[in-house]
Amino acid sequence: MSRTLAVVGAGTKAVAVAAKAAELRDMGVEAPDVVAVEKTGVAANWQADGGWTDGQHRLGTSPEKDVGFPYRSNLVPRRNAELDERMTRHSWQQYLISTGQFAEWVDRGRPAPTHRRWSQYLRWVAGNIDMSVVTGEVQSISVDTGADGHRWQLHTADQTVEADGLMITGPGQPERSILPGNPRVLSIAQFWHRAAQHELISAERVAVIGGGETAASMLNELFRHRVSTITVISPQVTLFTRGEGYFENALFSDPTGWTSLTMAERRDALMRTDRGVFSARVQDALLADDRIRHLRGRVAHAVARDGRIRLTLSTIKGGESLETVHGFDLVIDGSGADALWFVPLLAQDALDVLELGLGGPLTGESLQEAIGDDLALTDVSPKLFLPGLAGLTQGPGFPNLSCLGLLSDRILGADLSGAPHSSTSRRGHEHQPIR
């Protein structure tokens, strides 16, 4: 019986999984039908219309870490090399060769592509495999308990998509901000819309909330605007640089041994390499711009007063909570992606299924700790894949673009028959290939 895997969003992860599933079927190997439900288009978040970029900034990850990377498939015994060879047909280099850009890219020193160019690559892959995309915005997610077992139901305004497994991707809603509707507070989407329209910001004191790569890309853009000072607000003690040496990068490409680390060691590695850190390229730019300042704290309150935005920052000093107030002419809320953005979409029956499997209330912590080696929640049926939350238990590369080929292996090797797997029985075992 053919199974269906639905994906919320037609982004990089959806394209990677769909491409490998297509190659498996061409090899005569059973693989689920992958259906992406997308409100805009394939790779929309990498273009200006998606609200997360103006499309002109550079990809932070090497483009060679494409939909097949690291090309070490473990799905089909004795045929994995063939599967890897097939996936090279969808590689970044093959895209450049097919579009007549390879020689120029090499001669220019293999530069990081713009976000827009990366989206064009992903659309090229999706076109090659005739990727199935249902146009529509998911408004709610429920569980159907029919005679054929539990299945996910994704409801859009016009139709319902049913699936045996569900993967949720994407960073959430870029339209949110701490003071919606106030012209002196810009959401991520509003900021990038102005940048895409080449509308320069003119202000004395500007604040950027957030210490991760979303905020970093905004700072990179703000360098060319007419602003006197730029204050970065983040809870970290300073603006840390992301580790980009071999040993740090290897953690992302190959998580072998990750599960042998203690939870404390994993959290420490994530904080040093992935969360709340800027890339070395952006840090170099910050060093050359004396307009940049850093304020430590979390925004506890925001209010518009006397033509300015006053932010109340909360910090912990000496074990006590301290609040300070700071005024700015413009605030850009770049606090970043919300890994739990999908929770409001879950109908009560879906929430019941998740809480039953988790053995308690649904929280960010409980979701992260319950993700198994197939990147789905253990003890939950039907399967719910949450690669964006899999960093803690499975490795730091899964939430981003660092090991898309391994991500697709894990997901396509999962059992979508509807039988939940015990987290205790799975712990300590390697991912099983398709038989």
TrEMBL record:
Record-stated family: Belongs to the lysine N(6)-hydroxylase/L-ornithine N(5)-oxygenase family.
Keyword DNA repair carried by entry: no
Top-tier EC class: oxidoreductase
This protein's pathway: Siderophore biosynthesis; mycobactin biosynthesis
Cofactor(s) annotated in UniProt: FAD
Pfam families in the record: Lys_Orn_oxgnase (PF13434)
Protein name per its UniProtKB record: L-lysine N6-monooxygenase MbtG
Keywords associated with the record: FAD, Flavoprotein, Monooxygenase, NADP, Oxidoreductase
SUPFAM superfamilies: FAD/NAD(P)-binding domain (SSF51905), NAD(P)-binding Rossmann-fold domains (SSF51735)
Taxonomic superkingdom: Bacteria
Organism: Mycolicibacterium flavescens (Mycobacterium flavescens)
InterPro entries to which the protein is assigned, alphabetical: FAD/NAD-bd_sf (IPR036188), Lys/Orn_oxygenase (IPR025700), NAD(P)-bd_dom_sf (IPR036291)
